[in-house]
Amino acid sequence: MATIGFEEKLWQAADKLRNNMNPSEYQHVVLGLIFLKYVSDTFNERYVELLEDDPEFAEDRDEYISEGVFWVPEHARWSYISDHSKQPEIGQIVDQALDSIEKENDSLRGVLPKNYSRPELDKRILGEIIDLFTNINVGGEDARDKDVLGRVYEYFLGKFGANEGGEFYTPKSVVKLMVEMIQPYKGKVYDPACGSGGMFVQSYKFVKEHSGNTFDISVYGQEWNPTTWKLAKMNLAIRGIENNLGAKNADTFGEDLHPTLKADYVLANPPFNDSDWGGALLENDARWKWGVPPAGNANYAWLSHMVDKLNQNGIAATVLANGSLSSNTSNEGVIRQNMIMADLVDCIVALPDKLFYSTGIPVCIWIMNRNKSHKGKTLFIDGRKLGTMVTRRLRELTDEEIRKIADTYINYKNDENYEDIQGFCKVASLDEIREHDYILTPGRYVGIEEVDDDGEPFEEKMERLTKQLAQQFQKSKELEEEIRKQLGGIGYEF
Questions:
Q1: Which residues are paired to 266 by β-bridges?
Q2: Span of 214-228, 339-353, 432-446 with lowest mean pLDDT
Q3: Cα 227 → chain centroid
Q4: Which domains does the chain carry?
């Protein structure tokens, strides 16, 4: 599912705040309430289970903590908050609820927003929003499976148009594809632009689904936006995922919080074509081993940073705008050529457009590998024709399509049943890439998909089709004359 089922209600809630709150703030008020409802719903689900088994355990804190469920004091539960939604002190009640949840759960300390009692927040509207959310389950088992916190954030970015800084939540299907391709079973996983933490969530799911041990992977990340950083902390805390996202939010380029990290895996969806990344102040940075990225576009700064963070056997998967594959602007072509010649580019996947809520542009996946299994070669996969439109503006990759792309790369990497498929995948040598001026657009290499020969000779087919076209032209002419006649009959000649 591309949507989470209650987007319109979310919008209604946020829209209620538009008249008395700065647009950059009001979405986060709703997100805080969603988190509170999420925690309470999760707690209540466990509470009901315990009541059925043995009512004595229903108020036993350890029965929740042991199952990875946050302990929620009675006055912080949604039922209590909802019962007091019409009270003038509802702002204080919400703040106290969030504060007590922090105190009872160490992983949430300093993370939760506690600003609902401020005078500029209309308490009548706050109460109405609480009422609106009361019948929406966001923390039950089904909601958890859908990564509700991340998807709520995705929706808000799209709806509010808050993408000026490139803060795109990565769609679940794209995250799943990258994880399935690089398979982070064991080691350090790093995301330098971690957003709401979706990459880490999917990595943990991958390990669990493949009977691995989640204790075998450790999570490192960084996020510049303070609200998003807190959201990531909340998102990971809910799932019991230990993490090191730094002690604060910070700019990855200007203040690297993991300066000595050498990761086994990098998974990232950095801001697309970011023009305000501070490049002019970082011209002599040690990370630019393959060339200095242009100050007006951060694409190659991100690539350079990620490769620099890999250990000698490390592998990275990142989403970038398609322009990164061919741009020669301001040293980008030189950096790309140097990376290719350094034998770092393992695979390029072209994806279809409309995969993101916040932008319709087509994107690609770069797989960078410090220790390629096939030296001097790069796999190109053209997936532009894949995906299913789930709304008029949004496309998703199916599980089968994800498997098709991932298996193609894995089979190539492991020398197992791989073969070039015209129009879909092709292994190219460095010489071939050089012939294409170091442009990495998959369509240049995979060719056009073969069309089955229907056995009809070309001359016969053309004769048949031209006759058919002539008949259609004649029919069109007749219809045009009839329309003119009918319009003339009612006084509209032309």
A1: 190, 316
A2: 214-228
A3: 17
A4: 7-146 (1.20.1260.30), 172-446 (3.40.50.150), 456-494 (no CATH)
